[in-house]
Amino acid sequence: QVHLVESGGGLVQAGGSLRLSCAASGSGFSIGTMGWDRQAPGKQRELVARITRGSSTNYSDSVKGRFTISRDNAENTVYLQMNSLKPEDTAVYYCNAESRWNGVRYWGQGTQVTVSS
Questions:
Q1: pLDDT tens digits for 73-82?
Q2: Do the beta carbons of residue 37 and residue 94 sit within 8 Å?
């Protein structure tokens, strides 16, 4: 199975930046799209950004222009550069990766991002 580990979360002040990373590990798999979702207290999990193996990207309107998703296919790693952070960005951010073989999407354990006023 695919194991995803996020890192880079933490506490920042409004207007600051964070860079999240997520490394996929395992054997016998091929990863297609990767992405980041987030879940704030009292809200449903929502899509933040997605990136295909060919580096085509999609962003939530709420983060467009502030966040940038990228990936390193050779290292099976996806990144999320978050700039101009706002308090409403506070959430647990979950890395995800889709198997090219069976379409199953795997999820990381989540990393907390807290943006203070």
A1: 888 899 999 9
A2: yes
